[in-house]
Queue: 2 jobs
Job 1
Amino acid sequence: MFDLIIRNANLPDGRLGVDVGVKGGKIAAIEMALAATAGEEIDATGRLLSPPFCDPHFHMDATLSLGLPRMNVSGTLLEGIALWGELRPMLTKEALVARALRYCDLAVSQGLLAIRSHVDTSDPRLVTAEALLEVKEKVAPYIDLQLVAFPQDGYFRAADGEASLNRALDMGIGIVGGIPHFERTMEDGTRSVEVLCRIAADRGLPVDMHCDETDDPMSRHIETLAAQTVRFGLQGRVAGSHLTSMHSMDNYYVSKLIPLMAEAEINVIPNPLINIMLQGRHDTYPKRRGMTRVRELMAAGLNVSFGHDCVMDPWYSMGSGDMLEVAHMAIHVTQMGGIEDKRKIFDAITVNAAKTMGLEGYGLDVGCKADLVLMQAADVSEALRLKPNRLCVVKDGKVIARTAPRISELLLDGRPASIDIGLDYIPQTSAP
């Protein structure tokens, strides 16, 4: 007797028409025609069943604040930074909590059950830290929320940057952040990387730095981050986010840099939506894409995962909390449209992102947590193409969200009465 059985599901690894049995909040069986009963059964009807989506790079303290105190008219990074500077003194804990919880509602509906959020520590009030620590506790039953102490105005550049970051860590924020390219000088940026890695090593914490989010090919703080990672023995516990300067670097230098990053076991987190939107703004034509070298980094064995970064905030007026939208953009901007490419792209918002976040019990194997998402698509490639409805979202073996399938009624003589976008248009090579 199982608590839940999802029957006739297709899995991301290519297995078709399998049954997944859940008991005690964990996956207890994955078999063809599972001979058992359950308290609840769901017929997947040949659709994709996946572990939940994970977002390893987000800013929950700013999300859903679009329009406060005004709109970003230019849509640029610099105006976004200025806007956040205007909004930050007006922030209240209550408003921050309310917006963050609303975003978490949206995330659950999209099958997004793990989020790493950077928390701005540049305001010495630390109202952002207080609010998101409260949100972390509130959403713990359904979202794994990790928090990064992020000195958004610069660890050295902000007047109280050093003290505020340390206070945020003392409050319980569990990851050390940084933004070396936003310090006043290259030397200060380099120094901040060393100091922040030392803090992480002393406290036994991971590191996740905004690093080289610029078109400047001479912004090379990722090299310093990799070196300090090895120096302090932080291999596998450090993430470099954005890394957009790599799109402009000399190929010979990159041929040295990538092996150094691999030696340090750096987790790489590009943010396709925001990177393609904000980078290359000083170019006329040809215009740079603004994405780091995803294909090359993956080929070198680095763990690459994608972040959403922003949803309806001063920097990015778009977004829907859908990691498939992130991956969809990644396919286009990286030109990774091959069959195996798409599997790697899907991994970047699931298993790779879970590895970046150090999630335990994640996956779709017997013994893993029964955290699952059933989609209105036949397989991984179709999920990436369609960004389909999440038919049901399961947490610890219990359904926590449902969405009706997208079925369009047609009123055309001689044509079908309805179409199912998820099954009626699959290519011949996809699952039946």
Job 2
Amino acid sequence: MSASTSLKVRLPAFVLVMEVVMIILYAMFVTYDDNANAKMQNNETNPMDNSMYRDYPYFADVQVMIFIGFGCLLAFFRFYGFSGMVFNFLTAAFTIQWAILIQGFFQFYYNGKIHIGVINLVNAEFACAVVLISFGAVLGKTSPVQLLVMSLLEIPVFSVTEWAVLKYIRINDAGGSILIHLFACYFGLGVTFMLYRPSLNAGHAKETTSYHSDILSVMGTLFLWVFWPSFNSALTIKGDDQHRAVLHTFIGLSSSTITAFALSAVFNKRGKFTMADIQNVTLAGGVTVGASVDMMISPVAAYALGIMGCTACFFGYRYLTPFLARRMRIQDQCGIHNLHGLTGLISSTAGIVAILLATEETYGPSMYQIFSHRAPPEGDPKLLELQQLIPGLKPGLGRTAQEQALYQVAAIFTTIAAAAIGGLLTGMVMNLSFMASPSDEDCFDDEVFFDMQLCHMRLHFINCI
């Protein structure tokens, strides 16, 4: 290993500094929320009413997606399996604890403390998913130090964007198509633009897959596929909204899966399946239904969205990804622009259409819960009537459907702009010489950052036994 890629000082120094910083910040600002605080319990409290039992299943499901689903999915390169899985593990573990703090500071601004419970962990996992999606654009070309720095910088940019969009623009985005998928995509593309390597446009000798690496990657796809309904429904309103989110996600994933198999066979010269299509394109439906996942869009619309997302994703891989690399200096290693960018735009458009078509005839009074910004403002007589039908309904902004649709459009452009600028600036930092970046020749190779000799010795010992 060359001195330029040695982690002996760089990674331990970074981890030590960040651990000291986080210990201080956790000690000063972080405490339990009411559902985790022993002082809030008494003899009349029913333990089963604790939010733990409502939120933990979603936390566990998203954990599986983050650490196993993404980890296995990113292990598709023949000589980069260790790095794909382990760098995902390292980045996710760091990102979640960092996101708890950064997202919590907005809570601190109002409450003077960061109160955490399981739901905060779920929110931190969603922020982590943003970083891991962006990671896909630079897979194989970055060091673990660079990835940790990317997480360190991306989480604040994401958290500020999320806070600004939700507080001031105020949108409907239950499945995170705008704030998770679009943000992650264009942030990652900004980073990879700054890390452009001209020599990789012609391919790399180790940029190949193998029988076993493809199987491992498909396992990641299956974990993501199975748990995606939890991802899309975790933060929706409990009850029928959450029920619809699960149904729509499953239907969208199912239709995108069978469409992916059909397209893969049709466009393969030998009429056979291509593993890259199975690993990635099958998941498109989960993203495409995201923005409207809790709305009354009808099952057939979810089915159609799955097909549309899959088709856009498939042709994006075949034609758009090579074009971006050749013409726009964007080497999107995992094709995140196809699976998260194109499908995120389709999903956001579908969400806008669903908002424009929403009426009380279809939704009943609950329309003002789902589209909370369309609820009457404080003091409006209609608000009192609705609150008699829906106790606890909060005042809204009194927006019309057309006004809300325009705000959705504003959120899309705001999110993409913030992500792209943040990605470009982060890429500039990651390009600094002391970040242990591998050379062009060393890309897509585990041996750069792993002691493969020790691994081979262990394998030899096991074979001897």
